[in-house]
Design brief:
Number of helices: 1
Distance between the termini: 18 Å
Order of helices and strands: EEEEEEEEEEEHEEEEEEEEEEEEE
Strand content: over 45%
Largest sheet: 12 strands, mixed
Number of strands: 24
Oligomer: single chain
Shape: globular
């Protein structure tokens, strides 16, 4: 078994400090360190890689909701906050279950969050790297980003993504739903709409499961009209024919019903295969949804089917790996929507 968290210059800072949003001091989720900077573009780079018996799971939810009457796209819609906790000091919060199998050990975990700062209001970018997180049955802990934050003002939006390592917290926690609060998203109405949410990604080890390769890549890149297609080499290893696998994606401002956005997988043994399922069409894959293999079987609260500009989806890779592979590359693009890509995660069996 081999696994590693990928080092890089932009990933050098780890910090979690007390948030000013609550009147009382909060426990921190990791050790304090200098605050990371921001950049309009954060190139995609490997974050984590492993070959082990186990897999990758995720929990995800939106931090924004549509006002009454908002049923489809978030453009020009009135956006409000999701707030499911009973804490009067938080203005947004949502929950989701992280389905780590019984008997498994978490080897790595990371929280990603982001959204649009410019809607009816303009939120301060200084709060982009700060959230609150509560493990199942636990109390809020303050968490700050530990790596370079993506932050780009473009096409009428002021978009960002931040992330932080939460391995120790997830490893020591019991099963159940995680709560994330105070994601720095704006509410109100604008031409491009408001959006935001969070995804907790965790790799785990379990001896009874198949030997698999696991990989996580992240960054902050813009695709859409006037922007190049993004191509990410998520894995360069060989795979035999017919192995199983899954591909996860985190992205922002994909509008439901606006065609032209795609997520495709290329291998050395097959042509490009566009990811699609019963919930995500091949030509509108970023359609404001949180799904796994075409279903909304993730446990979360709230659990609306339209997440209004936030996507966290997991796709079946069997079709792309049918002929085997000596590498796996992901292509991501959009002809109409401007979409921000935040992370990709891969799980694939080493042998059939």
């Amino acid at each position: 078994m081999r696994n590693s968290a990928i080092p890089a210059v932009r990933r050098s800072v780890v910090c979690a400090l007390s948030c000013a949003v609550l009147s009382a001091a909060l426990p921190v989720a990791s050790a304090a360190a200098p605050r990371p900077g921001e950049a309009a573009r954060v190139p995609f780079a490997p974050r984590y890689a492993a070959e082990q018996h186990g897999g990758i799971v995720r929990a995800a939810n939106t931090s924004a909701k549509g006002a009454k009457g908002t049923e489809s796209v978030n453009d020009n819609a009135s956006i409000a906050y999701v707030d499911v906790d009973s804490d009067a000091n938080t203005y947004n919060s949502s929950r989701a279950e992280l389905p780590v199998p019984s008997g498994a050990r978490v080897s790595w975990a990371r929280l990603y969050w982001g959204g649009n700062l410019r809607v009816g209001e303009q939120k301060p970018p200084a709060d982009n790297g700060r959230v609150l997180i509560a493990e199942p049955g636990g109390q809020y802990k303050a968490l700050l980003a530990d790596t370079l934050i993506g932050h780009r003002t473009a096409d009428g939006a002021d978009a960002f993504q931040a992330s932080a390592d939460v391995t120790k917290l997830v490893r020591s926690s019991r099963p159940g739903q995680w709560t994330v609060a105070q994601v720095n998203v704006a509410m109100g109405r604008s031409k491009v709409g408001g959006w935001g949410g969070w995804t907790l990604v965790a790799a785990y080890e379990k001896t009874s499961e198949p030997l698999r390769r696991l990989a996580v890549w992240d960054g902050f890149e813009t695709v859409g009209p006037g922007h190049r297609e993004l191509r990410v080499p998520v894995d360069g290893k060989r795979y035999p024919k017919g192995v199983g696998g899954r591909l996860g994606v985190i992205a922002y401002d994909g509008d439901r019903g606006t065609s032209g956005d795609y997520l495709a997988v290329e291998t050395g043994a097959s042509k490009s295969v566009r990811m699609a399922d019963s919930a995500n069409s091949a030509d509108d894959v970023m359609n404001s949804s949180i799904t796994e293999f075409g279903t909304g079987r993730t446990v979360r609260y709230p659990d609306g089917t339209n997440t209004l500009g936030y996507d966290s989806d997991v796709f079946d890779l069997r079709g792309a790996l049918r002929e085997g592979a000596d590498r796996v590359h992901v292509r991501f693009g959009s002809r109409k929507d401007t979409v921000w890509l935040g992370a990709l995660f891969l799980q694939a069996d080493v042998r059939r």
